[in-house]
Design brief:
single chain, alpha+beta, 7-stranded mixed sheet, elongated
């Protein structure tokens, strides 16, 4: 089997990164002054003395029985006069009501809402996607009513901040504003039957282009997974980036500017830069045992046995799938095999009682940020198998896979 291959992958998925569901971005809504709109208010950078500039706009045909307002949304490609990197929205019925909320987008940035096509519609429990530009893989934002019931403390804080900075704008309140979620990651899944991954590009400056050197970010994760922003790598001036995932190196050789495809070289034989390598000696570390009293033990004390090290956390999907096989390894009663469980982030009492709960003989202890860094852990759970001389036999192996590699009595 060839150890390296060049893949041309169509970026046909709108994927999520770690910020998508965790980051709270509010699109504040303000009242029109007659038909005029004020310049954007950036709460993170504004000061109370900033000048407010009003510009005449041409409003769409809105229902006069509803409250209405305007908002600005970040758009890295916009060259709008007086509001660079923003696009203007007109909003009918922004507050939570039983009636739909219509949103017009000033797509051509001329302060005229009558020449941009039909509005988006969002409902009480359902938002809508705002697409920028003509490219199907261009920048998108999901807009919904701000979920006040989930973020009451944040709402109060945001209301207070905007009241101090709004100048002569009239703010409808965070409860009447919108929450935005930036859909700026395009990705591709790949599966060859034995291995799989999802690889993508984040349009970090939200300008609809995916090859901006030193700005846009390459990401890799599980098949259909959510990307971890902290493991992203910025593309360089040649549109290239180097990533690692599950014992393979991935060199992105080209990212199309419009985000339609990427070309990536996958190599399972090259020496990895940011991960442990098979054949190397396992780094020395000490862990805290789940005993009373607890003790600090060196991994070197297990020399002379095959050791399956499993870094785990209860409740995560991978652990639920692995647990039965992991318990089986812990019941082998093979003097040449030891199983070391290193719990990360769990209850000490639960870990202490674990073997009693499940009738296993696993050596239980605790991992830490330092141990995870030493072992170059990128996901939890993860398994590492070492031989009697503590050389690495396999990395990222599940308990079921490790069982096939262990010596028999």
């Amino acid at each position: 089997m060839a150890h390296s291959q060049v893949l041309n992958l169509p970026l046909n998925i709108r994927a999520e990164d770690g910020q998508y569901s965790k980051l709270i971005l509010v699109t504040p809504v303000f009242e029109f002054r007659n038909d005029s709109v004020a310049n954007p208010l950036d709460v993170s950078a504004a000061i109370t003395t900033d000048k407010v500039v009003w510009t005449q706009s041409k409003l769409p045909d809105m229902n006069k029985n509803y409250r209405s307002g305007f908002a600005w949304i970040f758009d890295g490609a916009s060259e709008m006069k007086g509001a660079k990197s923003y696009t203007l929205l007109a909003i009918e019925n922004p507050s939570w009501t039983a009636f739909p909320c219509r949103i017009w987008t000033d797509k051509n940035h001329n302060y005229d809402f009558t020449d941009d096509g039909d509005p988006l519609v969002i409902y009480t429990e359902k938002g809508a996607v705002l697409h920028f530009g003509e490219n199907k893989n261009g920048y998108e934002v999901y807009l919904e009513h701000f979920p006040s019931e989930k973020f009451r403390d944040f709402e109060l804080m945001n209301d207070k901040a905007i009241e101090q900075l709004r100048g002569n704008r009239t703010f409808v309140g965070t409860a009447g504003s919108l929450r935005e979620r930036r859909m700026n990651v395009v990705a591709a899944n790949w599966n060859n039957g034995a291995d799989s991954f999802c690889i993508g590009i984040k349009d970090a400056n939200c300008n609809g282009k995916y090859d901006d050197a030193g700005i846009d970010v390459a990401l890799i994760t599980n098949y259909n997974g959510v990307f971890d922003n902290l493991q992203g790598i910025k593309v360089d001036v040649n549109g290239e980036a180097y990533l690692e995932w599950r014992n393979a190196a991935y060199t992105i050789q080209k990212v199309s500017e419009d985000g339609q495809f990427l070309i990536v070289k996958r190599d399972t034989a090259s020496r990895l830069k940011f991960s442990l390598n098979v054949g190397d000696k396992l780094p020395r570390f000490k862990y805290c045992t789940a005993t009373k009293p607890s003790k600090h033990k060196s991994i070197r004390r297990l020399k002379g046995q095959y050791v399956y090290i499993y870094v785990w956390r209860d409740g995560v999907e991978g652990f639920i799938n692995d647990s039965a096989d992991w318990h089986a390894i812990g019941r082998l009663k093979n003097p040449d095999v030891a199983t070391l469980g290193l719990n990360y982030g769990g209850s000490a009492r639960y870990v202490y009682q674990y073997n009693n709960y499940f009738e296993t003989a696993i050596l239980q202890g605790y991992s830490s940020n330092d141990i995870n860094k030493e072992l170059k852990i990128k996901e939890i759970p993860t398994g590492i198998l070492i031989d009697k001389k503590q050389r690495i036999v396999a990395i990222g192996v599940t308990p079921a896979q490790a069982m096939l590699l262990l010596p028999t009595k």
